[in-house]
Request: fold
Amino acid sequence: AVKTVHTALHSTGSQDLSCVLEAATLVAPSSKNMVSLSARRRPQWLPAGLLSERNVVLTLLFAVLGSLTSTIAHGHIFTVYIFELYGDNASVGLTESIAGVTALVTALPIGFAVDNMARKPLLRTCACLGLIAALLGGLAVAIGPFAVLDSDGNKSRPGAAFTALLLVSLAIWGVFFNASSSATLAIFADSIPKGSKRQELYAQKSTLTLFAIALGPAIALALTAFAGNSWRLDQMVIAILPGFFIMPFMCVLLLFFEDVENLIANDNLEPLLNGQRKDDSKAQTMHKEHAWVVPYVILVAELITAVGAGMTVKFFGLWFKAEFGFSPAGLAALQAVAPLAIAAAVQVLQSAVKRSPVGPIPVMLSFWFSSIVCLVLMTCATHWQSVAILHLLRTALANSKEPFTRAILADFVPSSKRGRWNALHSLTGMTWNGSAAVGGVLCDRFGYGKTFAFTAGIYCLACLCWLPLIKLVPSAHDCKSLAKDS
Reply:
């Protein structure tokens, strides 16, 4: 590296800082990667050029365990469990909204902490919060069947102490999920330069996550069948508790992440890493004037979507149970198949995006609008077979765009601001828990079908927000052509 910088200085005849930076950047990362790859053989499924293979692998494992926890401990059976405890949809919505409200309050502080603090100590703090959330949440679920019994053994609403325990555990879960997701995703993005097939790794992460989301309900299905396949509280506890047992393993993973040097991970230096000057590449300056708008537009669209999802998704299980007579095993089976459908849709969408001459946004919107049509058709269906098929199609088409949204954000957000943007984007995933309170009131007053139809209108509004991005997010074909011309 020293010889290269020395040669660069003498070849220009002046101390050109940009030339020195180019020479140093080209040599230093490659030397680091050579040492890393010589120390151990890189797995074949990982692309070359990663700045930290450990962070990529740990993020994938953390996402898998997080999906298992969410689907087992906070899935559809947990929603029915809360309904059986309190007896009305409004209580379900209020309880489910606690994690979303907590995420809303803590989103910006967590984002700034991720960007301005050392991420390893922050992840250790998240690990402690996760252990507390696992302990309190597991305790609340375990004692729930006893909390509804009064002194005479008759069933009644849970008392204030139990409700406080349940709400506190969900609030801590909301902080843990938001903080750990923001920090790990920021490190994940920093560990993958654009030249390392970032979009493919995001799609791979999504596929692994979806298989884990399918595995969680499958585990719940097996436990439910073993316990008796009924909606009794004591039997639902058996299907929910394993999710809280997985959380400590998530916390352990957070202790092994490593920091990535900002100089190497900064996207502003990626043209130098690719062996070309930043000001010589048209692809790097494409839509530069309006590129800052892209993350904000995506955030608004995702927040609107999350509000609609919270009014619907949390109540699908109750709708299937009340209107179509689904058993716990049937509901768990449907929940297990849905992620597999999403994984298949992700692969189809990825193939379509690569072939699209107009960029990824029109293809993503076509999938999303098709999912809205399926939701409307669900409210008109009368047979459980038709509802199940439409539900799987809707779920697959609506959620297949998630990895591509993450990849677009990673491309348009600099490394120094990824923490706050990941926190805000994670907030959209928790906001739908917050809007569940509104959904519960609407379901009690107007019924499930009308509430779902109203949600379809909110989704259409979110679709409109994506339209400006059609020209702001270029296609892969356009980027390659511009790079070739330059």
Remarks:
- DSSP finds 23 helices and no strands in the chain.
- The two ends are 27 Å apart (CA to CA).
